[in-house]
Amino acid sequence: FKLPSDSFKYLVWCDIEEHSVRGNQLLCPRVREGPSEEELFFRKEEHTLKRRKQVTDTEKWEKRLQENWENCAELNLSFQDLGDLYQVENLKRILRRLIRVEKLWLVDNSLTDLSAIRLPRCRELNVNKNHFTSFKQLPKIPQIQHLSLAENNITSLNGISDFRHTPLESLILKRNPCEFQERYRQLVFSNLPNLKILDGIPKLPEDCSPPEVRFFYRMCTIL
Q1: Helices (H), ranges, 75-202
Q2: Distance from C-alpha of 14 to C-alpha of 66, rounded to nearest angstrom
Q3: Residues with Cβ < 8 Å from 36, sequence gap 6 or more?
C-alpha cells in the first residue's frame, strides 16, 4: 500500500510549499533531486507526479533565491545517497554556487572528481570516505587551512605541492594507500613546509629533514 508521504519522497526541502526557510539557515539540507518523469514511469512510480506542476521562470527564480547557497558560510552536505548521475550533477550545481562558504562537509558521497569546482573562501573541507584517487581531483581551495581526506583511495603524493602556496595548516590522509609510502611524513612536510599537523600529529623534528638527507644519515661509513 502506498503511504500518504509517497508523493513527497522525491521532494527537496525547497520544493515543499508554504515555508520560507532558506538554504543558509540549514546545516544539513537534503539536496539530491528526484528521478525524471521518464524514470518515474519506468519505476512505475508515476503517482508521485501528482504533486508536480509546470514551473514558470518566476518560480525558478524564487527557488534560486530561497536556496540562497551564495550566502552559506557553513554547510554539511554529507551522506546524500547520490545514487544517480543527475543527483551528482545537482550537487555540483550547488557547489558552484558556494562562493562564500568557509566550512564544508561532503563526507561519504561517493565523489570522484570535483576539479571543476572552485570554493574561493573555504577554510575547512572534509571529504572523508569518498572515491578520490588524486589530489588533482579536489576542488580549487586557495584559502584552505584544514583539509581532511581520510578513507579515500589516494595512491601517491603527486599533486600535493599544489597546496604549497595555500595557508594549509592541518591535513588528514589516514587510511589512504599513500600513507604506506616510504618516508611518508617527510615527503608530505617537504612538499608543504607551512603544514603544522599531519594525521592529527604535530610536526616533529624528524619530519623536517629532507628525505635524501635522512637517507644519508642511515649510511654506514667504514674507515
Answers
A1: 85-96, 184-191
A2: 7
A3: 86
Per the CB < 8 A criterion, the answer to whether 166 and 142 are in contact is yes
C-alpha cell at 16: 515543499
Residue 166 resides in a domain = yes
The answer to whether residue 164 is domain-embedded is: yes
b/e 152-191 (16+ beta carbons within 10 angstroms → b): bebeebeebeebeeeebebbbbeebebeeeeebbbbbbbb
> In the 8-state DSSP scheme, what is residue 42?
H
- Residue 46 three-state SS: helix
Residue 107: give the domain boundaries: 22-205
Residue 159 forms part of a structural domain:
yes
How many domains does the chain divide into? 1
In a domain, 100, yes or no: yes
Give the tens place of pLDDT for each residue, 166-200: 999 999 999 999 999 999 999 999 999 999 999 99
Distances (CA, A) of 92 to 16, 27, 52, 119, 221: 22, 17, 24, 12, 57
User: Is the pTM for the entire model greater than 0.90?
Assistant: no
What's the pLDDT tens digit per position in 131-159?
A: 999 999 999 999 999 999 999 999 999 99
Q: Give residue 209's Cα distance to chain centre.
A: 32
